[in-house]
Amino acid sequence: MRILFLGDVVGRAGRAAVQELLPRLREDWRLDFVVVNSENASNGMGLSGNHAKLLLDAGADCLTLGDHAFDQKDMLQFIENEPRIVRPINFAKGAPGRGHRLYTAPGGRKVLVAQVLGQVFMKRPFDDPFSAIEPILKSHPRGGQAQAIIVEMHCEATSEKMAMGHYCDGRASLVVGTHTHIPTADAQILSRGTGYLTDAGMCGDYDSVIGMDKQEPMRRFITGMPKARFTPASGEATLSGVFVETDDRDGQAKSVRMVRIGGCLQPAAP
What does the alpha-carbon distance between residue 58 and residue 55 come to, in Å, rounded to a whole number? Predict the structure, then answer.
């Protein structure tokens, strides 16, 4: 199976990049399944129902959220009626929506998508991500009901993401990190056949501070004083993520490559 995962979509620039580039990528790369993290798609904070529809119409099969899952209040209701959106498993007890879902890809093949939040350096005390993902992996063995299993680790610390990669090795097809908006250069296949990338980066304007217009973040770092709200940068966005090709028989990753298209980062096509 040919799977594309795109990192955090940030603001209007990120949405525009997905809308412009994803339809062509689906065709040119013969993609079977596309996952897009979209928790910063609406003004850099959360995802609205209208923006979710735009990204799904552009070709995403599944949208994931994160610690800003419900910053846009209409998502509290929207997610209950849209199964193509996944929020973190360990977000909060009683949170609307679901933290994992099984989807159907072309040919009747099944793809499991699960998202979990890390704990290190995060502002809120989320439940243990390892014990949260364990029952999902146990009930969905790789190559069984699901031909491909994608685990997204949404957190700050690279070490915690790496630990999740090794924890899922041999049980997931791909473990990919999100949240920092900074792409890493360590795409690899782990020893038991799981594709891995510490952070997919963002779909946004990299002439920025993690997707936000530079002026206000720099002022706060330099003076320690806020003056205005953060606003997403509006220049040309780079589409960032990871492409993985899996074996339908056992769900192992056969190849994994970073994706950088447009904007100020160089492209890398599979």
Answer: 5
